[in-house]
Amino acid sequence: MTPFKREENGEISIEISTQESHVLISLTEQLLELLSQGDSLAEAQDPLLHLVGISDSDALPDDPVLRRLFPDAYEDLASSSEFRRYTEYGLREKKKAHARIIYEALTSQGEPEEITAGNTPIDKGSFKLIINSAELLDWLSGLNDLRLALAVRLGIGEGRKEGMNIDTKAIHNKYELMLES
């Protein structure tokens, strides 16, 4: 992957390999699936609350990735629960929209049978991906959500290097290098 480059017209371009594209597509599909898990609850709630984007549930999500993406806003449990009730639905919808923008940009770069997460990511070269300035913040937010989800699944966090086995340390070091690039 080459660094992001701002073009004269304000667009961002990046040369991305098909392997990198496969990884991003797969991660984005998984994130969309995870974020959609609460949709069935949204349909069952009070229609008026749904209309204004308020959830019936104020519980902290069970999944650790969702807990990282939707953390407690306050130290006080009651205040956090109330805040979650009024904001989580809207935040979840925004995160899904950001992930869809990334997914659609990557899957529109070739034939569907060539670029899908289900195919083996055999290196078939690379392509130039253009991100227009209107979608730039959506991309940044979506990539940050993917970064957080990946860190949770890999067990990467502040002060967790102690007690890691050699394989986990190697994964952690590669993750840190990826963040620095």
Automatic annotation (TrEMBL):
Domain of life, per lineage: Bacteria
Pfam family, one: DUF2017
InterPro entries on file: AosR
Name listed for the protein in its UniProt record: Uncharacterized protein
Origin species: Actinobacteria bacterium BACL2 MAG-121001-bin67
